[in-house]
What does this fold into?
Amino acid sequence: MAATPVTPVIVAIDGPSGTGKSSTSKAVAERAGLGYLDTGAQYRAMTWWMLSNGIDVQDPAAVAAAAAKPVIASGTDPGAPTITVDGTDVSVPIRGQAVTSAVSAVSAVPEVRALITELQRTIAAEAPGGIVVEGRDIGTTVLPGADVKVFLTASPEVRAARRSAELTGQEAAGLAATREALARRDAADSGRKASPLAKAEDAVEVDTSDLTLPQVIECVVTLIEDHTRRAR
Ligand code: DC
It folds into this structure.
């Protein structure tokens, strides 16, 4: 069983999709005895609520005006993370195409980011032994004082292949289409004004293109162990 660290350790893992961020973050949290927070799921939950309530997601003023209404809650057990909106489990619908297509627009709205950032900071501060927080702006904006910061990357080909493998049935598109969709979302996430996807200056960049998942996990666990040793 993983030992709970004596002082809370905050780990920020950022990067675009298809880099193995979620699988790595969950496994690292389990290995290190830490909580786990998927911040993308929170932006997806906000987007699901907007779509379910007929808000025009392409209208930033309408999104901003409604942003404080949904109550988004995240369970941080890495073995069974949960996400609810107003008490309803939305873990399945937030992965659908409708939410995936709209989430970049919703997450670019500053009022949405301010609310969700505050929620993320509260969850991180309350995690008893510490937490692994995965996202796009964790090391730069949400938790700039994080103990360990990692920025995962991978080549566009590898990311598209991984994303295609995750999609099933109707949603599975050709590789070229998946690569294009990823590039569009990257451009939107990196180009927005409010805390864009970016590597923090003090983050360790790990290119996962030629690494297996266990190798990436090992690499991040080693960074946490190094931190813990230095902090003693
Ligand atoms: O990691 P993901 O694909 O589930 O994230 C969904 C979207 O949420 C992504 O397109 C950008 C946004 N996001 C964000 O803006 N900031 C974060 N910290 C996490 C996700």
Remarks:
- Residues 9-223 form a domain with the Rossmann fold fold (CATH 3.40.50.300).
- The first strand starts at residue 9 and ends at 14.
